[in-house]
């Protein structure tokens, strides 16, 4: 049995491989080895539905070399013919052009140069204009003269603007105002007391109050954020602890606590009134124009329904 090798990859062409035979040299070449034949066309040719005309890669290279060698002499012959000039042809004579230019470089004395620098552009009244008069009376065919002398240096005035002075720095230190505290009854969700400060923080009771003092801790106690700021109350005197808050303040903290308390009271007082009506009316009374970070009415409406759920018949 004769073995056939691919003309492109030099690998053995097996019985199950897809290969085509060259029409010129009868060498075999795998279909996937740069033949340009798709699988669909190959299958159609195998069924006899289509005829394949194929030339292997080696024969293609030989054809390209032969065509290049044949074209090279023809190109060289064309170049030689294109550069040949028939000696019998007479070229037209070139036109004769005569240039007659005379340059006169006028010399300036040191006195004239000094006068030109000091007097500027305007000439003196005693300036002799004879040369200009003679030039105007010359005929048209007279030789032209060009004065290539240069004037003195041009004075350029540089304008320098003084920058505006910086505004003076103020040495006024704005001191923090006195922090005021307010105890809101039924301020928490469980209707307990809640302490609200004027700087935007809220507190709840840390432990059971005694006869002499009450300990308040910050109401921010979430899973990923716990604030340990405290306030000590003795009568009407509130003293902040040394631990600072670890979260930003809320400028509407007092309004939020008051609004939640009023919503719960109104929800219990009239259990048949729509929750949206209660929230809308109270928010218009509490909030003012220019307030930002307002509470969502939908959240407040859920608080209304939660507060009066046990009072509904």
UniProtKB/TrEMBL annotation:
GO MF, any single term: zinc ion binding
Biased composition (Basic residues): 303-313
Spans annotated as Disordered: 112-141, 288-313
Swiss-Prot/TrEMBL keywords: Metal-binding, Zinc, Zinc-finger
InterPro entries, per database record: Zinc_finger_PHD-type_CS (IPR019786), Znf_FYVE_PHD (IPR011011), Znf_RING/FYVE/PHD (IPR013083)
Superkingdom as given in the UniProt entry: Eukaryota
Keyword Transmembrane part of the UniProt annotation: no
PANTHER family: FLYWCH-TYPE DOMAIN-CONTAINING PROTEIN (PTHR20956:SF12), HEH2P (PTHR20956)
Protein name: Uncharacterized protein
